[in-house]
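User: Sequence recovery, please. Input:
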């Protein structure tokens, strides 16, 4: 008996093809719009996160306890080799690690000065793990060479513009050294980088690890060991393993711990996407309600005859619900087809928003937003469309099931 009602519901969709196709088309456009928003809102969020991770944060940072809240020189690692040894024991889940010196300081040129975050790194390790070397727009990244006459520094383009720096020019870095004295050094600009985030372009400078250690007088001490993983999914497990091995003397922080603003921004993107999807689907629901009501009113006499020959109200209710479900399925299929065509036509290469590059830089995103396909979100969208379609058809279905046979048959 169920199969009969399903077949009747399927055929009823095509009794008024124009109206049905209009509603199916509206659902398809709504689904395509929702998938489009998911692809590119999630894509933008993913790019922001990965830009921050690959630029300077890494997946995991290891510090002396208290350093994250008070990044002073006296909280450098007393035994960095033991920390590095524990990182190396993790094995295959680790892509690599970068020993660092981190300190806040002042960059001074002949014309201006600015507060900066000084990052001392091993040039080769850093270039293999982070994207800063690939984002050099002038010159080169650090070579690792250092001498009394040659100390290298790489700066952001915004900082270079503010300080009037060019390749080969000197800049003096000043920071508090070990013991409370001020440490300083004259560095020559060997490279200028451009990150997606304007804040990073203004604030970060990279120098060689040896130069940073000498300037701050910390010997072989380290402020941080940054760890990069092969897979994001291993983040929690690796953090737990390292924290267990290193004990209370060290803090093992993930990128979420280090950048709460980034986490909140990603959460905001998720909420914004859900709100926009709800608005689109709510608008499509009105079309479905209207179509199903018109379909019921047009078939009042037909429903009356069905009731008169013994068809139960519940059967009529289900028949209308089935029609709405088929409309939802066809709309979803149409939306997927639309997105598929657009993806093959060039959408898969990314959405070029160079016109809004300056605004996107405030969010730390590149100008070309590449789509990110999130399977759980896609499934949620499909389920939401079907649920919305069924809910929108409840009222018309109830109207059909409550018809009185005699009154309905008299309808013309």
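Assistant: Recovered sequence (412 residues):
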């Amino acid at each position: 008996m169920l199969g009969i009602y399903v077949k009747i519901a399927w055929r009823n969709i095509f009794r008024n093809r124009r109206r049905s196709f209009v509603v199916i088309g509206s659902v398809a456009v709504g689904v395509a719009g929702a998938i489009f928003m998911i692809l590119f809102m999630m894509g933008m969020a993913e790019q922001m996160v990965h830009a921050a991770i690959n630029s300077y944060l890494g997946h995991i940072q290891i510090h002396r306890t208290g350093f994250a809240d008070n990044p002073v020189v006296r909280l450098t690692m007393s035994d960095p080799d033991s920390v590095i040894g524990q990182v190396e024991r993790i094995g295959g889940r680790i892509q690599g690690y970068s020993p660092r010196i981190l300190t806040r300081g002042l960059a001074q040129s002949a014309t201006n000065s600015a507060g900066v975050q000084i990052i001392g790194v091993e040039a080769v390790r850093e270039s293999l793990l982070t994207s800063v070397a690939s984002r050099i727009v002038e010159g080169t990244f650090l070579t690792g060479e250092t001498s009394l006459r040659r100390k290298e520094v790489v700066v952001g383009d915004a900082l270079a513009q503010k300080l009037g720096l060019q390749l080969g020019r000197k800049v003096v870095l000043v920071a508090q050294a070990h013991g409370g004295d001020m440490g300083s050094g004259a560095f020559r600009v060997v490279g200028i980088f451009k990150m997606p985030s304007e804040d990073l372009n203004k604030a970060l400078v990279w120098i060689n690890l040896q130069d940073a250690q000498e300037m701050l007088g910390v010997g072989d001490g380290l402020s941080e060991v940054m760890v990069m993983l092969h897979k994001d999914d291993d983040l929690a497990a690796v953090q737990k393993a390292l924290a267990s091995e290193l004990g209370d003397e060290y803090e093992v922080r993930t990128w979420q711990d280090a950048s709460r603003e980034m986490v909140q921004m990603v959460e905001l993107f998720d909420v914004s996407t859900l709100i926009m999807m709800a608005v689109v689907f709510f608008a499509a629901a009105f079309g479905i309600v209207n179509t199903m009501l018109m379909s019921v009113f047009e078939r009042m006499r037909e429903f009356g005859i069905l009731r008169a020959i013994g068809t139960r109200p519940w059967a009529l209710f289900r028949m209308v619900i089935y029609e709405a479900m088929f409309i939802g399925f066809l709309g979803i299929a149409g939306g997927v087809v639309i997105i598929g065509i657009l993806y093959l036509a060039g959408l898969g290469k990314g959405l070029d928003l160079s016109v809004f590059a300056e605004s996107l830089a405030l969010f730390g995103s590149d100008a070309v937003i590449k789509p990110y396909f999130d399977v759980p979100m896609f499934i949620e969208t499909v389920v939401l469309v079907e649920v919305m379609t069924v809910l929108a058809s409840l009222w018309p279905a109830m109207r059909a099931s409550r018809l009185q046979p005699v009154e309905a048959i008299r309808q013309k």
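The chain has two domains: 2-52+263-410, 72-222.
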